Amino acid sequence: MTLSQARRNQLIIAAISSVLLATLWAVGDLPRSMNYALPFVIAALWVPAFLAHKQRDGGLVWNAFFGVLGIAVIGVIVRAVWLIGRS
User: Where on the phi/psi map is residue 58: left (φ > 0), alpha (ψ -120 to 50), or beta?
Assistant: First the structure.
């Protein structure tokens, strides 16, 4: 996969995920901490798309950074969905 294809795929994923998270944020009755966390999660979805050239280099530090960022995003999303489902 070339750099432009990887960037295109990441931009598509970030755009769709951002729309879904914004809908979740608008519709869900979330605690204040989640209302503050979701904008950072939405912004974090766009970081890999903008730094696709760093992913392409394959450095261990960058791969670890993107892995931790992905785990944090998934953790916040699961927590938000769990809080909405609980209420």
Answer: left
- Cβ atoms of 75 and 40 within 8 Å: the answer is no
Strand spans (E) along 3-80: none
Q: Any idea which residue has 């998270």 for tokens?
A: 21
The 10s digit of each residue's pLDDT in 69-81 is 889 888 888 888 8
Look up residue 36 and give its two tokens: 């503050």
Residue ranges in the chain whose pLDDT is less than 50: none
| Residue 18: partners with Cβ closer than 8 Å, 6 or more residues away | 42, 45, 46
Residue with tokens 């992905």: 70
Rounded to the nearest 5°, which phi and psi values hold at 28?
Answer: -75, 145
Residue 66 and residue 14: Cα distance in Å, rounded? 14
